[in-house]
Amino acid sequence: xxxxxxxxxxxxxxxxxxxxxxxxxxxxxxxxxxxxxxxxxxxxxxxxxxxxxxxxxxxxxxxxxxxxxxxxxxxxxxxxxxxxxxxxxxxxxxxxxxxxxxxxxxxxxxxxxxxxxxxxxxxxxxxxxxxxxxxxxxxxxxxxxxxxxxxxxxxxxxxxxxxxxxxxxxxxxxxxxxxxxxxxxxxxxxxxxxxxxxxxxxxxxxxxxxxxxxxxxxxxxxxxxxxxxxxxxxxxxxxxxxxxxxxxxxxxxxxxxx
Length: 258
Hints:
The chain is an all-beta fold. It contains 1 helix and 23 strands.
């Protein structure tokens, strides 16, 4: 990773350029990750007005299960929470210099959130950020279907406001509890407001019997709970939702033009 911040609180990461320099097939060379130990955690950090270019997972909240890192000395303790983070006014971008000829790229998601907070009072906020150019992975990273933002494992109590996603192969992916991490709740308690998603390309062909992965605004699963998306404009995107929505996955005031 370009920068990993473990057990940090009250810091500002501002007005900087984070740029990828090398790419390894099936290996992550990530950008900026915030994580915390169970004893301390990371609270109240500010990530403002930065440019993240051509990185595998430009920005992430990291997470490991405690039992995993205790059994594997090479793993670090990232079993704590990340709370009250402000991510504002950043530009997360993958450009054509690392695109492959088949529509894939040597990169993964722009945002990969494996962690969050255990209470609403510690909600993390992403606001007025721009996301551009993500593509399905080939030749760099462990693999992605090209969404701008993926929420998984313990991504809880996170809010997105006034965000713009442009020319990404998918918008958001919400994943439920993972069989490899059964003690984690999966994505949930997510609120997205005043969102724009535009020009979502259809790159990877749909597989019979499986939910579509590209050209999609929101990918979800029936076990993903407590997600609200309100006041969104979706343009040039072939599917609004891929996957079955749970009873607590709510869409309100959505304008979709394809």
